[in-house]
Structures are given as C-alpha cells and as structure tokens.
Amino acid sequence: MPALYSVAANLPHNCRKLLAIEALAGNDPISRIAVREDVSRKFLYQQKQKAEAALDQAFSPDNDASDVLFYLPVTKAWLIQLVISLALICHSSYRGIIQLLADLFDTAISLGTVHGLLVSAASQATQINGSQDLSAIRVGLQDEIFQGDQPVLAGVDASSIYCYLLAEAEHRDEDTWGIHLLDAKAQGFDPDYTIADAGAGLRAGQRAALGDTPCHGDVFHIQHQCETLANLLGRLAQGAATRRQRFEQRMAKARLKGQGNTLSSKLAKARKAETHALKLAKDVKTLVGWLERDILALAGLCFEARCELFNFIVTELEHREHLDSARIRPVRIALARQRDNLLGFAKVLDNKLEEIAQRFQVPDYQVRALCLLQRKPKTSQAYWMGRDQLNQQLAWKFHAVWGALVNAMAETHRSSSLVENLNGRLRNYFFLRRNLGQGYLDLLRFFLNHRVFMRSERPERVGKSPAELLTGKPHPHWLELLGFERFRQAPILA
Known about the structure:
Layout lengths: L12 H13 L4 H8 L3 H18 L17 H13 L5 H12 L5 H21 L7 E9 L2 E8 L5 E6 L5 H13 L6 E4 L3 H11 L4 E3 L1 H38 L4 H35 L7 H17 L5 H18 L1 H17 L3 H10 L7 H14 L3 H13 L6 H14 L7 H13 L15 H6 L6 H4 L13
Parallel strand pairs: 1-4, 4-5
Antiparallel strand pairs: 1-2, 2-3
Helix pairs in contact: 1-3, 4-6, 6-18, 7-8, 9-10, 9-12, 10-11, 11-12, 13-14, 13-16, 14-15
C-alpha cells in the first residue's frame, strides 16, 4: 500500500506519543502492539527511539559550565547600573560592591566613586519623587520610624502602599510635620482622612497643613498597650500564686516543728494578695478582650453603640485603678482621650453601609447583619446558617450586596501598620549606614515605589509597582526612569 494511505503515516503526533510511551513501558511485546494498532514494528521502534532520545536529553547533565550562554557588552553605563542595582536590590555595602567588581570583573573602583554614583542617582530620584501626582491617595498612613535616635517621618498610601513621605528630621514637632505635609500637599496630597498614633507633633502638624482633614487613631498601638497591661497583670498574678505556694511550703515545715503560728499571718496576706491579683488580671484581660473583639474590630456595631461600650470599658478600668494605679492609669487615660479618634473608622464604615443599603434598596439592619456575619469563622455552622438566612431575606440582591460589603470593608482601614511594613523593608538598608541623609532616603523611596511586587497576599498587586497601583498607569523600569538602557539578550534565531 502506498505510504500516503498507511496508518502510520497519517497518525497525529498525540497518537505517536502514546505509542512511544506504550513501547517504552514494555507491558506488551512490540509485535503485539504493532498488530493491535495496525502499524509496523519498525515504525514502533522508531517512535521508541525518539522518546528515548528526548528523555536522555531532558535528564542529561547540564551543559558544561564553560559553555558561553550569551555575550554581555560591559560598558561604563552598564557598570554604573550594576553598582546602583547592587546597592538597592542586593542591599550591598559600599565595600561589598568594590570587592565584587574586583573579583568578578577585574575592575577597580573607589569608595568615593560608589558614593558619587549613588548621590547622582539620588538626585534624579528626588526629581521623580517630586513630580508624582498624589491626588489619588484617599487614606494616608503616617508614623515615625527611627534609625538609632534619628527620627524619620513616613507616610504611606493605604491602598497602593505608595510611600509619599520619607524624610529625615531633627525633631518631630508641629512645624517639622507641617512643612513636610505642605510639600506633599503641593503635589496634590488631599486625603479623605489619615491614620496615625497619638503623637502630638504629628497631629498638630497635620492640622496646620491639612486643616480639617480627620486624623483617625491607630488601633494597633492602643491594642498593643492594652495587651501589654493585661499580660503584665497576668504575670504579677502568677508571681502572687508562686509566693503563696512558697509560704505554704514553709508553713508545712514549720508545723512539723510546732512553729506554724509564726507564719500564719504572712500566709493569710499572701492568699489575699493572690486572690486580688488573680481577680484583677482576669477582669482586665476580659475588658481588653471585649475592647479588641467587640469595639475595635472592623466588623461590629454602629459608632454610637461602640462609643457606649468604649465608655463602659474606661469606667470599669477606672473602678479598678486604685488596685494598681501606676499601670492601669496610663492606659485608662489614653483610652479616654483617644476614643473618638480610635473609633473614626466606625463612622467611615457606617457611612459605607448606609450607602450600600440605599443603593440596593434593602433595610439597614440586613446590611449590618451581613457585616456582623464577617466576625464568625467561615468554617462554623453559625456562619453558614446566618448566611443562608440572609440569602433568603435578600433573595436575588444577596450576592450584589455581599460583594459591595466585602469591598467596603476591605477599603476601610483602622491602623497605620503598613508604615511598620515599610520600616521592615527599610531595615535591610538602614543597618548598613550610621547616618542616612535625605538623598539616600529619596533614592530608597523612589526604588521601593517603582519596583514591582514579585509576590503579595493580594493578587492584584503581583507584577505591579506601588506607583502603578497608585496611578493605574504602567511606567518604565526603574533603571530606565533613571536614564539607563537595560541590557536584553538578543533573540535566538532558529
């Protein structure tokens, strides 16, 4: 039969691959496979050899390390890119850069030259930072970080993680914060509100620069303060229990000698102190738990109800203040003074829930019920029972209301923790230098704002930079923004 009409000649590649695999497996003789598939044994052996060659190539050792992969034109401009990239991407020290160039490129470079190249790049980075439009920032997160005893003022956009402020300062007073915020305002910075701790200089500076723009309280700091108090009182209660146990052991030994009366009064005082310490620690721990779960949690009651519960917590702490004034009083005063600021996020969330109810024409209490449902674990029966009930009540509107609510809660911020995240990323650079300098901070700010995220808990951020997330527009690579031409391998011709 002519080859044009043979079965083997017209087999698609997928079938040829399956035949090769079957021949390699060796479960059936080649002759039996040939009869069953109506092909020749020679054809099967050919497919088997192709598969074996492909496997050998796939699992063969790597090419010789001396093989040339590609040629790189090492120019002065490329070496400058390398120096800047080593400092920013690899967190290399100046002397580390000098040693790498000497060991791998047989090129000498001085400490001053490395410094000069970074200063030149910092100058360009400062211009780019100053030209960025900041009008898209709706929520600003502000805090103070430190390099040793040197304060660094920081500001981060809550949505894009774009750093709009990173300034070395000698003071943290109203004037210092006000000047830097005025500079940001000149670039269009006009947020709906900001979030910061209770720092007096920070808040006064914002009032001076941004007027009536609200500054909500950072719940992270106050929660940490309250948890520290609860843990400390818990350790004191454990210490009181340990002292009582020691007195009981000494009492048992004294009774054997007929001298038990000498320790009875001390043991009674130790038991009483333990009882009071345990009760105080338990009460404060309960109050702190209510504060975190029922008042400062994102999914919760309306602003007015949270205020009543907040006042209850403060009152109960005040009733117990005489038991340990030195430790309880500072926390109680901090809570009393910061209530409205700390609950600022609740007002924002209330407005969003009200807008959702009006947009979809559903009762307010049902939207609030959906919000409260977020507090329950998604693996619990109560969560799914509540969800099913609300699904029946809202009918076809349920999924639309649910999606709007989830987005609203995701965009409601309660803390300035992203500044701490920025601080963590900056630590890898700060530890290399005793003195920072504003130019160095401008260069770091530029790099972190224009470097793309390789991974993130939020998928929409992966492969994008904070600057791109802020503006919604792509931008050139950060090296190209600094005026360099990136190296790209020439395409391999087939």
